[in-house]
Amino acid sequence: MAKSVDEFNKKRLRSSNITVVISIALVLFLLGLMGLILINAQKYSDYIKEQLVVNAYFDQNYDAKDSVKIAKLEEETFKKVQTLAPVKKATYISRDMAAKEAKKTMGIDSDALFEENIFPSSIEVALKPEYVDPAKIDGAIKIIQSVPGIVDVKNDSTLMVDVYNNLSRILKWILGFSILFLILAVVLINNSIRLKIFSKRFIIKTMQLVGAKRRFILKPFIVEAIVLGAIGSVIGLLALFGVWYYFTSQIGSAFVQDNNQYFWLVILVLGVGIFISVLSTIFATWRFLKSNVDDLYYS
């Protein structure tokens, strides 16, 4: 009879542990998924911002005999622009290149409409994502204009502001959902741990009544919480990166290539899983340690 009771208790304990691990894995899978979406959304947002360029134009009022000298000055100016703090990437566009691009845009194959090369040479500047901010774009343009040799800087400020505001709005929504999933992770993991500890409330109180100190009682529960939290986190991460690998292989893009960000995401998910499990275990166990024996039947 005693043997059957022990087997029943062991099966119930295994079932309880499996339930807690699965709960932790599922919740952290969703939390990690939101983290991956947030990382890639931020990277994609930066990529789009880098496609918003400003054009810095050179002075074209010079004699043809000075063309060699002017070309050298433009080269020096181009190198200076490349070193500016707001500049992510700079591309030099000569007068010939500008003329070819204009003809291509207008669908003209001959030079019949152009008596001379009327298009100025320029530098196409892609700003760093943080300088696309409407509050900083004017300052970035002034810095570019201050470079000797640059006479004018043009940009479609309305388009930049609209794109920046839309991207910022999207990122805020994604961040909001990520925070919501973090709260849900705390609540759901906490409830799973509390149910597990609840099933052991009589064991906890019995240990206390026979003289065991609170630290002694807490220790095995904390160790178990660390193990269960780690196992649940690992399972959740394996499922997460398995799904993400399948998704990226299907669309043919790996999205973010920075493994450092994925590393910190793994650390975050592991940390959240273990931390919440341990914290919930401490609070749930401490509750029964402070309760009376009669309260255990009504908790």
From TrEMBL:
<dbReference type="Pfam" id="PF18075">
    <property type="entry name" value="FtsX_ECD"/>
</dbReference>
<feature type="transmembrane region" description="Helical">
    <location>
        <begin position="170"/>
        <end position="193"/>
    </location>
</feature>
<feature type="transmembrane region" description="Helical">
    <location>
        <begin position="262"/>
        <end position="289"/>
    </location>
</feature>
<dbReference type="GO" id="GO:0051301">
    <property type="term" value="P:cell division"/>
</dbReference>
<protein>
    <recommendedName>
        <fullName>Cell division protein FtsX</fullName>
    </recommendedName>
</protein>
<dbReference type="InterPro" id="IPR040690">
    <property type="entry name" value="FtsX_ECD"/>
</dbReference>
<keyword id="KW-0812">Transmembrane</keyword>
<comment type="similarity">
    <text>Belongs to the ABC-4 integral membrane protein family. FtsX subfamily.</text>
</comment>
<dbReference type="InterPro" id="IPR004513">
    <property type="entry name" value="FtsX"/>
</dbReference>
<feature type="domain" description="ABC3 transporter permease C-terminal">
    <location>
        <begin position="177"/>
        <end position="292"/>
    </location>
</feature>
<feature type="transmembrane region" description="Helical">
    <location>
        <begin position="221"/>
        <end position="247"/>
    </location>
</feature>
<keyword id="KW-0472">Membrane</keyword>
<comment type="function">
    <text>Required for cell division and gliding motility.</text>
</comment>
<keyword id="KW-0997">Cell inner membrane</keyword>
<dbReference type="InterPro" id="IPR003838">
    <property type="entry name" value="ABC3_permease_C"/>
</dbReference>
<feature type="domain" description="FtsX extracellular">
    <location>
        <begin position="77"/>
        <end position="153"/>
    </location>
</feature>
<dbReference type="GO" id="GO:0005886">
    <property type="term" value="C:plasma membrane"/>
</dbReference>
<keyword id="KW-1003">Cell membrane</keyword>
<keyword id="KW-1133">Transmembrane helix</keyword>
<keyword id="KW-0132">Cell division</keyword>
<dbReference type="Pfam" id="PF02687">
    <property type="entry name" value="FtsX"/>
</dbReference>
<keyword id="KW-0131">Cell cycle</keyword>
<feature type="transmembrane region" description="Helical">
    <location>
        <begin position="20"/>
        <end position="39"/>
    </location>
</feature>
